[in-house]
Amino acid sequence: VHLVESGGVVVQPxxxxxxxxxxxxFTFDDFAMHWVRQPPGKGLEWVxxxxxxxxxxxxxxxxxxxxxxxRDNSKNSLYLQMxxxxxxxxxxxxxxxxxxxxxxxxxxxxxxxLVTVSS
Amino acid sequence: xxxxxxSPGTLSLSPGERATLSCRASQTVSSRYLAWYQHKPGQAPRxxxxxxxxxxxxxxxxFSGSGSGTDFTLTISRLEPEDFAVYYCQQYGSTxxxxxxxxxxxxxx
Lengths: 119, 109
Hints:
The structure holds two protein chains of two kinds. By secondary structure, chain A is mainly beta.
């Protein structure tokens, strides 16, 4: 299993950003996927979940209405569209593979991509 | 939302010693849907345990998990140098959010 995130940059408060995750080494459309973040010096925080077919999505409260998770199973790719970014969104963002079709434990993680929200 | 509280925040031990990490949930974690992860600086987190007590693929048997309901424990029987890291518990046994504990930093004494 190989998960490679990209798209992390420095962005101003109120700005937008799309993270991508390229997946390989497994049958992508057999598993749910997640985004998990870690602010510098802090712990892990689950951000969002998408089911194997993209039909169901879930978000942490702070992401609702601002972030959109999506996937393209034909491209083995996961995305996170982030709008109206806040300084508290600054974090490493990890692409994470679920063990099941919808929601189970996280059995593989990417290396992460750093998003910095600052003026 | 289920809140997970890990203790201690920092654990200072020497190689060869036994480590006991605790994770307490604010409400019952159904069907033992409790996982543990290891995270080292600059690396991707790694799954250690799921279902509270089942070791993930490739995890050595010095790692063991136990508990049910609201109280869970990760035990490392004899610490190896590579075991010093931050450990997180996580619950996935209900509708999201899939919350993590705040982490236990296992450091070399």
